[in-house]
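User: quick one, sequence for these tokens?
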């Protein structure tokens, strides 16, 4: 009996592969408008600070796609799942991933984004691009929109919070836990977008399981645009906690991010950490999920369930 063959388009934001690619990558993010010399220098300096020219996000994404392929093979041997990569702002672009599926004769596919929380401005954009390309090639494609409360995801994050809390010499209740995610333009609130509430639901689920009661949610890494973004920024929260509320121990759990990349390795590990230290505080971060087996099982499960809906 022939196995059913399902393409899996694994989508993520994308990153340059080397220093030379930073400018075209930034230009793509800016919808074809090249960055100013000052903007380009700022982004280049951030990459230099964290990686010195090595790009962990790209390597992480490659490993995640490979690990998901292997997990699907192990858990669902009766179906042939074939994973493809599609990036928002770098090659292979989302459209490239769909074209490769079509060239391989894929007729049915599932799209999943390496981000657990849905927003029309984030996941919605990935889905729109993939759907349009799939229709051109006659591929029937279904999409996982969110998986923010999946038991395996929560398990993996609970594990990380419990491990990171051990890095403090004070009692757990004296550690302020900041759950964080990438900010988006504030207008999503008026639109009734589920993104902020889904993030709070994930945070509450982790807090409940770990017994953490001393926590709050923080926004980070807002874009530099003329419109207001969700805030206040996590740096404002850190300054307020240490300087005004005399909180000296802070743990950041970036629930909105699944990989080590710029918003984690620079914005948290360098910017937030330096700020906390300069104010006399102690700041730690939970480890990223990357290709954690629990996270891979979470993705495999939602992909397999979505495949049943095609």
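Assistant:
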């Amino acid at each position: 009996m022939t196995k059913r063959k399902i393409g899996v388009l694994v989508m993520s934001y994308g990153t340059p592969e080397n220093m030379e690619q930073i400018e075209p990558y930034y230009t793509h993010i800016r919808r074809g408008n090249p960055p100013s010399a000052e903007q380009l220098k700022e982004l280049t300096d951030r990459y230099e600070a964290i990686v010195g020219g090595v790009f962990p996000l790209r390597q992480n994404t490659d490993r995640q796609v490979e690990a998901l392929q292997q997990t699907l093979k192990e858990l669902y041997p009766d179906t042939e799942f074939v994973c493809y990569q599609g990036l928002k702002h770098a090659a292979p672009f989302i459209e490239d991933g769909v074209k490769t599926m079509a060239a391989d004769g894929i007729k049915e596919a599932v799209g999943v984004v390496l981000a657990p929380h849905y927003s029309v401005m984030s996941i919605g954009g990935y889905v729109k691009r993939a759907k349009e390309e799939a229709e051109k090639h006659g591929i029937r494609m279904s999409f996982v929109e969110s998986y923010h409360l999946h038991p395996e995801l929560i398990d993996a994050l609970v594990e990380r919070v419990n491990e990171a809390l051990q890095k403090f010499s004070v009692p757990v209740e004296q550690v302020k836990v900041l759950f964080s995610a990438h900010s988006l333009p504030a207008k999503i609130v008026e639109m009734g977008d589920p993104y902020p509430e889904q993030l709070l639901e994930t945070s509450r689920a982790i807090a409940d399981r770990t017994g953490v009661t001393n926590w709050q949610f923080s926004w980070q890494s807002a874009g530099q645009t003329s419109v207001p973004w969700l805030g206040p920024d996590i740096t404002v929260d850190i300054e307020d906690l240490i300087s005004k509320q005399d909180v000296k121990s802070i743990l950041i759990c970036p629930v909105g991010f699944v990989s080590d990349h710029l918003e984690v390795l620079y914005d948290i590990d360098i910017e937030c950490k330096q700020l906390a230290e300069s104010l006399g505080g102690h700041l730690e971060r939970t480890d990223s999920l990357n290709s954690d087996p629990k996270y891979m099982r979470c993705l495999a499960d939602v992909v397999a369930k979505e495949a049943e809906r095609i």
